[in-house]
Write a structure and sequence with these properties.
The complex is a heterodimer of chains A (about 70) and B (about 190). Chain A is mainly alpha-helical and about 70 residues long. Chain A is about 65% helix and about 0% strand. Chain A is built from two helices and no strands. In chain A, helix 1 runs antiparallel to helix 2. Chain A is elongated, with a radius of gyration of 16 Å. In chain A, about 10% of the residues are buried. Chain B is mainly alpha-helical and about 190 residues long. Helix content of chain B is about 80%, strand content about 0%. Chain B contains six helices and no strands. Chain B is elongated, with a radius of gyration of 22 Å. The chains are: A mainly alpha (about 70), B mainly alpha (about 190). Chains A and B meet through helix 1 and helix 2 of A and helix 5 and helix 6 of B.
Chain lengths: ~70, ~190
């Protein structure tokens, strides 16, 4: 008989990650729209990689990967 | 494997470098780019020195860090060329895509993300050093578009790599079956 395994990512965790991803997207759009200095673009890699990671985890949770 | 790839990149770097220098000379002759001869000669000499150094390193082998170094210097040289030939309106912006496609297809998604990050930081630095007048939204969209192409190139490279692995396993199976058939034909001993 297989032992019960705790889920790696709970529904609440996935929701929080998706919310964080949306927040990162809002920050990205805000910088792109309103930035007055190109130095703000230096944070794009962190924001974009965070957004991609969050979106990836949310989609995998929807597909019941975890 | 990496040694072979980097050697091939050295050859491509000579060809692309020669084409870019030729283009700069022609555009300078027509007065379409305002760049001094010291800059043209300096960048060309730097490119040649780096390429010869990489060639010398590759004669002994390919250290793991070499691909990251060659890619970073390629991006830095292109950024310098763009900075000296008009910044945001430079006609040499497309050269970033040569580095992106060439490296992503050879090394996969990890390298695509590395190139996109390097481009993002260098281009943002370039814009900050010579701030353009007016809205920066177009520049942000250019950066996003580059990220989009990098992700797509990385995804395609992942698919190609997976198919190459599958093909290799099929070839191994075929070789093993051929060996067994040859053994059977030889008959029992």
């Amino acid at each position: 008989m297989r032992a019960h395994r705790a889920p790696v990512l709970t529904g609440r965790g996935a929701g929080a990650i998706a919310l964080a991803g949306l927040l990162l997207l809002a920050v990205l759009v805000g910088i792109a729209w309103r930035a007055t200095s190109a130095l703000w673009f230096l944070v794009f890699p962190v924001l974009l990689l965070g957004l991609l990671a969050a979106a990836g985890m949310a989609v995998l949770w929807i597909l019941r990967h975890f | 494997m990496e040694q072979q790839i980097e050697r091939s990149k050295v050859v491509v770097r000579w060809i692309v470098g020669a084409a870019l220098v030729g283009a700069v000379v022609v555009l300078k002759g027509r007065g379409e780019v305002a760049v001094g001869w010291p800059v043209v000669i300096g960048l060309t000499a730097l490119l040649a020195a780096l390429n010869l150094t990489y060639w010398a390193i590759l004669r002994r082998g390919a250290p793991r860090w070499l691909k990251y170094l060659t890619t970073a210097t390629d991006l830095a040289l292109i950024s310098a060329l763009i900075a000296f030939t008009g910044g945001r309106s430079s006609v040499f912006f497309f050269a970033y895509f040569i580095v992106l496609v060439s490296n992503s297809f050879r090394y996969g998604m990890g390298m695509a993300l590395y190139v996109a990050t390097g481009f993002n930081l260098l281009y943002a630095g370039l814009l900050a050093a010579a701030p353009p007048e007016g809205d920066l939204t177009i520049e942000a969209v250019k950066i996003f578009a580059f990220w989009g192409i990098a992700l797509y190139a990385g995804y395609l490279a992942m698919r190609f790599q997976r198919q190459a692995r599958i093909l290799q396993s099929y070839e191994e199976v075929i070789a093993a079956l051929r060996h067994e058939v040859a053994e059977l034909r030889r008959g029992p001993r």
